[in-house]
UniProtKB/TrEMBL annotation:
Coiled-coil region list: none
Domain Methyltransferase type: 4-55
Gene3D superfamilies registered for this protein in UniProt: Vaccinia Virus protein VP39 (3.40.50.150)
Protein's name in the database: Methyltransferase type 11 domain-containing protein
CDD domains per UniProt: AdoMet_MTases (cd02440)
Lineage, opening ranks: unclassified sequences, metagenomes, ecological metagenomes
SUPFAM superfamilies attached to this UniProt entry: S-adenosyl-L-methionine-dependent methyltransferases (SSF53335)
Gene Ontology molecular function, alphabetical: S-adenosylmethionine-dependent methyltransferase activity
Length: 58
């Protein structure tokens, strides 16, 4: 059984524990972020040690 939970929050200060995800994905969102460096710092915190970040910007 697969469980999916949707949450709405600030992408730059997400409310998740460290190393919560195997992959973080997004499409056409980076240009909307006021602080891209902070966003990717949080992505690194949230990813498991061998996790992936996959983003589409076009």
């Amino acid at each position: 059984e697969i469980t999916i939970e949707f949450k709405e929050m600030n992408a730059q200060i997400p409310d998740f524990e460290d190393e919560s995800f195997d992959i973080i994905t997004g499409s056409r969102v980076i240009h909307h972020l006021p602080d891209i460096e902070l966003f990717f710092k949080e992505c690194r915190r949230l990813l498991k040690q061998k996790g992936y970040i996959v983003f589409n910007i076009a």
